[in-house]
From TrEMBL:
Keyword Cell cycle: no
Keyword flag Repeat: no
Organism: Bradyrhizobium agreste
Family designation: Belongs to the ATP-dependent AMP-binding enzyme family.
Pfam families: AMP-binding (PF00501)
The entry's keywords: Ligase
Record-annotated AMP-dependent synthetase/ligase domain positions: 14-298
A single GO molecular function term of this UniProt record: ligase activity
PANTHER family: ACYL-COA SYNTHETASE, ACYL-COA SYNTHETASE FAMILY MEMBER 3
Superkingdom assignment: Bacteria
Name of the protein in its database record: Acyl--CoA ligase
């Protein structure tokens, strides 16, 4: 009897490398992890990582989490996040990734929208008590049954996963490894509001393949991932790229430039994956002398409309690949040429690598009738972005849409026919990757009191930055805290002169 073809999962990819080279180095923690979380940095082989994954997976099963239930994760860019994601998949769970910038209001909304049964967090990250945040959010999410944490001084009622890693693995369960099964849920903000975006394994792998093939990442490479992992792009650029290459994944919790360079040199990293603006800053000086082991740089653009006007890449020994990110909808990459300038991106199907004839189709880029950019392909979750049913027409079937409208304004360049992305989605702001509706900004400004000023100014590094008069800063922090927002967002507050 013929067995049906089954596409691989992330855990399948991990176990393939585990079988081939169990003692090879798999994971490397940030060198400054002790400052970030209080843990000492870890260095793990594939065999050691597999033992840890098995222990965490068994604990999730023994805790009573049913297969296909949702487990939420709010963790920094450390080894714990990789182990937890792979352990959840091995236990047959779906991972919901929660950005570190989120606080009580967003956490509670996400947990309730996804009916999450558990949440995993770190005791503290950069001095902020994420364990307390998770406990308070879990108290208002009726579906939560378990709260897990890494680190010391966990609140009462939170189970320690460090203790789980310190003992032998327990009972596991058989899980069918099929890439078509749900793997993750990320969260986006669109004109229609807050939106959970589910994805299967093959969609995550497709995103990783689009990046790794376009950037020509070699098998067995040591990859430095310095991009926040709590999104589709974050998981695809770190976890998926690492598992596809079968090499070593070094992690950097964003951002300390000196520590990042020290890590790249200490671990002899060949690939750097980071926000594009950070990568361009690194190339301002003599990158070849400072980081001689780098052969590839992948720059991720949260604001893809800024790519065309970006500076030239001046480090020919490590070519730059621009990756255009469109929230949680999808992405595509384009490797720069010898002149270091961004290459034109043409509409229609695009392969990976882009310039190689006969390469596999990674996706398709199109202009919608609204003059916005549309995406389709294996990594694009079309159903999650389906337009809302018109009021009063609930019994009328709507024509199916086979693409996602990203909302980014775009046009065709007449001489070249290339796509020009001109503006981000209307009504949406972004601060450091945190997206919110501009209407929310008006609500925050109202809370500042009469005569106060709060606005969003364009910023090349983070998309936008929140700005207010210096005398409003203290009240702004207080107001945003009352609204349940992370104080890291308020670090962007400056007066118009740029003074703190």
């Amino acid at each position: 009897m013929n067995q049906p073809a089954v596409s691989p999962t992330l855990d399948t990819l991990f176990q393939r490398t585990l079988m081939r080279q169990p003692h090879a180095t798999a994971l490397l923690d940030p060198l400054n992890k002790a400052r970030i979380t209080g843990h000492q940095p870890r260095r793990m082989s594939y065999a050691e990582a597999d033992t840890a994954i098995e222990a965490l997976s068994a604990h999730f099963v023994e805790s009573g989490l049913p297969a296909n239930s949702v487990i939420a994760i709010q963790l920094p860019n450390t080894v714990e996040y990789v182990l937890t994601v792979l352990a959840a998949h091995r236990a047959g769970l779906v991972v919901a990734v929660l950005p570190l910038l989120w606080r009580h209001a967003e956490l509670t909304a996400a947990l309730n929208r996804t009916a999450a049964r558990a949440i995993v967090t770190m005791s503290t990250v950069d001095g902020v008590s994420y364990a307390d945040l998770a406990m308070h959010a879990a108290a208002e999410a009726f579906s939560i049954r378990h709260v897990y944490g890494f680190g010391s001084d966990l609140p009462e009622g939170m189970a320690s996963l460090d203790d789980v890693l310190a003992r032998p693995p327990g009972t596991t369960r058989a899980v069918i490894q099929d890439g078509r099964k749900a793997a993750m849920i990320s969260f986006d903000v669109t004109a229609e509001g807050f939106r959970p975006v589910p994805r299967p394994h093959f969609s995550l792998i497709a995103g990783g393949l689009a990046m790794s093939l376009e950037a020509d990442i070699k098998q067995g490479a040591t990859v430095m991932a310095a991009f926040t992992p709590m999104s589709f792009a974050g998981l695809a650029s770190s976890l998926a790229v690492w598992l596809l290459s079968g090499g070593t994944l070094a992690l950097h919790h964003p951002f300390e430039n000196d520590v990042l360079e020290q890590q790249i040199n200490a671990h002899e990293c060949e690939v750097l994956i980071a926000p594009a603006q950070l990568a361009l800053r690194l190339s301002d000086a003599d990158l070849a002398a400072r980081l001689p082991t780098l052969h590839n740089v992948v720059g991720l653009w949260r604001a893809p409309e800024q790519v065309a006007a970006s500076d030239a890449w001046i480090a020919p020994h490590a070519p730059l690949t621009d990756v255009y990110l469109f929230g949680e909808a999808g992405l595509f990459g384009a490797r720069r040429g010898e002149d270091g300038m961004p290459v034109p991106v043409m509409p229609g199907p695009h392969g990976a690598p882009r310039e190689q004839s006969g390469s596999s189709i990674a996706g398709e880029i199109l202009l919608t009738p609204r003059g916005t950019l549309g995406l389709r392909g294996p990594m694009v979750p079309i159903a999650a972005y389906a337009p809302p049913q018109p009021v009063g027409e609930t019994l009328t079937a709507q024509p199916p849409r086979d693409y996602v409208d990203t909302g980014y304004a775009a046009r065709l360049d007449r001489p070249s026919g290339a796509i020009c992305i001109t503006a981000p989605p209307s009504g949406i702001m972004a601060v450091g990757g945190y997206r919110f509706l501009s209407n929310d900004l008006q609500e925050w400004a109202r809370r500042l009191g009469q005569g106060a000023l709060l606005t969003a100014l364009p910023d090349r590094l983070s998309g936008h930055r929140l700005a207010g008069r210096a005398q409003d800063n203290a009240r702004a922090r207080e107001a945003l805290s009352e609204l349940g927002l992370n104080p890291l967002m308020v670090e962007a507050f400056r007066d118009r002169s740029g003074a703190a």
